[in-house]
Amino acid sequence: MKELLKDRIDRWASLLFISIAIGVVVSGLDVLFGRVLLSLIATSHELMPWIPLLLGPAGIVFMFIFLRYGKESTQGMNLIFRAGHGEDVDIPKRMVLFVTIGTWITHFFGGSAGREGVAIQIGGTIGQWFGSLSKRIDRREFVVIGMAAGFSGLFQTPIAAIFFALEVLVIGHMRYQVLIPTLVASFIASNLSHVLGLEKFHFEIVPDLTLTPLVLIKLAICGIAFGLCGALFAYLLKQSKSFTQRLFPNPLWRIFIVGVLAGGLIILFFQGRYASLGMNLIEGTFALESITSYDWLLKLLLTVLTLSAGFQGGEVTPLFAIGTTLGVVLASVLGLPVLLVAALGYASVFGSATNTVLAPVFIGAEVFGYETLPFFFIVCAFSYAFNFNQSIYGQQKIAWLTEK
């Protein structure tokens, strides 16, 4: 009994110690990545509208170097998921360098993409590396811990990051055995990145809305619409990547030609309104600036086009923008408060496209205030139910399908 207790204490001590280290290191890398990224985006906006003309040429230069020296890093998020599933794969540390620089290039030249892909890949890479120092604990547990730290350090939504890491690898199977170390790493990364000056988007909403039967029906309609939107994004991204790979089997030609097309369209559609992360659309919505009925669709299509070319980045922040601007449209149609529905779209389209439900509920609460939690729970539940198991993550597994 004493030996069993000692073994358990030693295991937990190792887990917590390494989790603290993961939170600190990943947060520092997130801050470096995030602050440089925001600076490059600001410079890019000053060079609009012509800078996206160089998106294709910049892409081919990066892709040449990436293919030559990146090795397994070129598998990107798929490699992180494979490691998280317990496959015997080593995530190369060079992945951190390549995905970081690649994403900086994407955004400097105006590509419509996100940034969470970098944070999750940084976290997964560092997590597995620290995990290799412990011979007694499964390395995939540290991949999950690192993913949470990466997400939390970038967005400073620690609870959402915890649930995202626990649920995204296998839908329907939560890894509660690493809940405490994941919590530790996530909160350390979030608080440290804040101390180090990384910006967080936050907008407090006080919902002036009673949950009457009619309001519940309207919220359900919103959730269904957001779910279909997220599913559409995930489906089009998968199909677009497959189509461009068949059309241009050579990744160098693919990123150049599709990059030139994407850059031209980004200039054509309102001189860069849909470039980069989409924070201009999000901040414009909550500042009550004019949002058109097609902002969400153009942002969706240009993000799909940019990512299908092979540019680095991610999908989540554009999904926030797509959901926010679609929420403005739905609010006007259904007669609901505009800012509340925009906030609901911010979280639930992300949840639909990633095929997660708890993470978007809490990201909504952490960004917009916990008074909104019941509204996020209702809308994200319907959004999740109507995404038809679509996901932006090709290696994501679904428990009840793999059990058959």
Give an overview of the whole structure.
With about 400 residues, the chain is mainly alpha-helical. Helices cover about 70% and strands about 0% of the residues. It has two domains: about 5-195, Clc chloride channel; about 215-400, Clc chloride channel. It has a two-stranded parallel sheet with strand order 1-2. It is globular and about 65 Å long. It comes from Enterococcus sulfureus ATCC 49903. Pfam families: Voltage_CLC. Keywords: Membrane, Transmembrane, Transmembrane helix.
Brief sketch in words of this structure:
By secondary structure, the protein is mainly alpha-helical.
Chart the SSEs and their pairings.
Blueprint (H helix, E strand, L loop, with lengths): L1 H46 L7 H15 L7 H8 L9 H15 L7 H16 L7 H17 L2 H11 L1 E2 L7 H17 L17 H35 L3 H18 L10 H8 L8 H15 L6 H19 L3 H17 L3 H11 L4 H13 L11 E2 H4 L2
Parallel strand pairs: 1-2
Shape descriptor: globular
Strand order of the largest sheet: 1-2
The counted number of beta strands is 2
In the residues, how many domains can be counted? Answer: 2
- Total helical segments: 17
User: What's the overall average pLDDT, rounded?
Assistant: 93
* Rg result: 20 Å
Which CATH architecture of the largest domain would you pick?
Orthogonal Bundle
What is the chain-wise order of helices and strands? HHHHHHHEHHHHHHHHHEH
Q: Name the poorly predicted regions.
A: none
Annotated CATH topology of the largest domain? Clc chloride channel
Biggest sheet descriptor:
2 strands, parallel
- Identify the CATH class of the largest domain: Mainly Alpha
Give the terminus-to-terminus CA distance: 39 Å
**Overall helicity:** over 70%
InterPro entries: Cl-channel_core, ClC, ClC-type_chloride_channel
Organism: Enterococcus sulfureus ATCC 49903
Membrane topology: Multi-pass membrane protein
Main location: membrane
